[in-house]
Amino acid sequence: MELDILLEDGPLIAVNKPAGLLTQGVPHGHPTLEGAVKQYLKQTYSKPGNVYLGVPHRLDRPVSGVVVFAKNSKAAARLAEQFRERSVQKFYLAVTEHVPTPSFGRLTDWLLKDAAAAHVTVVSPETEGAKQACLDYRVLGHFAGRALVEIELQTGRMHQIRVQLASRGWPIVGDLQYGATLSPDETAMYDRLVSPIALHARRLTLFHPIRYDRIELRAPIPADWSRFGDLVAGFHSL
Q: What is the C-alpha separation between 79 and 12, in angstroms, rounded?
């Protein structure tokens, strides 16, 4: 597997994950981004034995975009702390089936995770086990009933963007798990890839784990998003 490396700087390596690839190795035996990065490090630096790789965060399998790894345990701990303390800025792009109204705002919900079913539901705040989820969004453009939406995550819950948007009638294109539908053309594409959805981790801003200077990582918009035409054509600089 050929990696799209966005940055390699000391103990930090950032990669553009393609949609359909697992970040980590569950279920066992399936190809993963973690495995591909380990193989890259092993070959590039002639590392013997098992290669250490810290994974401070993950993206859902059908989501593309920026994923950060650490080459040693000290860097992994410092990166994990940034994600835990929410000092990392995380920006996503999504194409939704309907146009969100109002065109910008903050969404706050309580989410309940069913780990066995890999599914998340919006519930009332008093529900046992529920966790608060918050994101900011703005509509960048819309065409033919679809919208290009920028999202900044304020929390990092499982399937958060997907379920928060879908609960308001704005499912992400291709996300059948949360109520999206597919046109005949999209159905053909869905069969070729592994559950792709139109959600992309576009930008990640964090502190370097050694120097502590602030760095911004950007993953280019996926090539297959060209199917959205003018809806995304003017926003490659975001």
A: 9
CB 41 within 8 A of CB 51: yes
* Under-50 pLDDT residues of the chain: 191-193
Domain ranges of the chain: 5-233
How far is the CA of 183 from the CAs of 166, 176, 179, in angstroms?
Answer: 18, 12, 14
What is the rounded (10 degree) CA torsion for 181, 182, 183, 188? Answer: -170
Dump the DSSP string for 81-124: HHHHTT-SEEEEEEEESS--SSSEEEEEEEEEEETTTTEEEEE-
CATH of domain 5-233: 3.30.2350.10
63-110 tens-digit pLDDT? 999 999 999 999 999 999 999 999 999 999 999 999 999 999 999 999
Compute the distance between CA of residue 111 and CA of residue 156 in angstroms, rounded to an integer. Answer: 11
Give the catalytic positions in this structure. Answer: 60
pTM of the model: 0.92
Cα 199 to Cα 217: distance, rounded to the nearest angstrom: 17
